[in-house]
Amino acid sequence: MSVLEIRKAGDKVLKEKAAPVAKIDRKIKRLLDDMANTMYEAQGVGLAAPQVGVSLRIIVLDTGDGLIELINPVITAHEGCEAGTEGCLSIPGMYGEVERYAKVTVEGLNREGRRISITGTELLARALQHEIDHLEGVLFIELAKSVHKG
Ligand code: CO
């Protein structure tokens, strides 16, 4: 497993709409491994493939309950609204208040290609929405009501 370079705001790959994964092959599985490794190394709770320079619809997350890998994730249900503080490994040292759905259900594929569904509240709900935004080329600072340092 490798630690990949995390692209920073200003890199154009972060502004692209990522393409769906057509086939989960060995290369995609290696990317999943490297993304998880990179996220843990950076002490992040989530990472999207565009953040490591790959414009594909893949996210990994760990909000404390173990690794979640999602390929082609889609929000299929949501409830409520909640403001909270966010940061991003691509925008080090900056934080902002972002309003998100309080609860979301996300469907996608796992590395075996099986359809899985994840429902989250609080940090998990926020992280899922933040990472899926990366797949649309959206950074949290564009949504934040206010942004501050450290
Ligand atoms: Co981010």
Write the layout of secondary structure elements.
Elements: H1 26-41, E1 46-48, E2 58-61, E3 68-79, E4 82-86, E5 94-100, E6 103-109, E7 115-121, H2 122-135, H3 140-143, E8 146-149
Antiparallel strand pairs: 1-2, 2-3, 3-6, 4-5, 5-8, 6-7
Cobalt (II) ion binds next to helix 2.
Describe this structure in words.
There is one protein chain. The chain has 150 residues and is an alpha+beta fold. The protein has helices at residues 26-41, 122-135, 140-143; strands at residues 46-48, 58-61, 68-79, 82-86, 94-100, 103-109, 115-121, 146-149. The strands form 2 sheets. The chain has a 5-stranded antiparallel β-sheet with strand order 1-2-3-6-7. A 3-stranded antiparallel β-sheet has the order 4-5-8. Strand 6 (103-109) and strand 7 (115-121) form a beta hairpin. The structure holds cobalt (II) ion (CO). Cobalt (II) ion binds at residues 88-90, 130, 134.
Question: Which key phrases capture this entry?
Answer:
8 strands, binds cobalt (II) ion, 3 helices, 23% helix, 3-stranded antiparallel beta sheet, alpha+beta
Uncertain runs are none
- Calculate Rg over CA atoms: 14 Å
Strand-residue fraction?
25-35%
Give, in order, the helices and strands. Answer: HEEEEEEEHHE
Ligand identities: cobalt (II) ion
Major β-sheet, in short? 5 strands, antiparallel
Q: What general outline do the C-alpha atoms trace?
A: globular
Question: What is the residue-mean pLDDT, rounded to a whole number?
Answer: 97
In percent, how helical is the residue content?
10-25%
Distance between the termini: 30 Å
SS-derived structural category: alpha+beta
Total of DSSP H or I helical runs spanning 4+ residues = 3
Number of DSSP-assigned strands: 8
Describe the strand arrangement of the main beta sheet, using strand numbers: 1-2-3-6-7
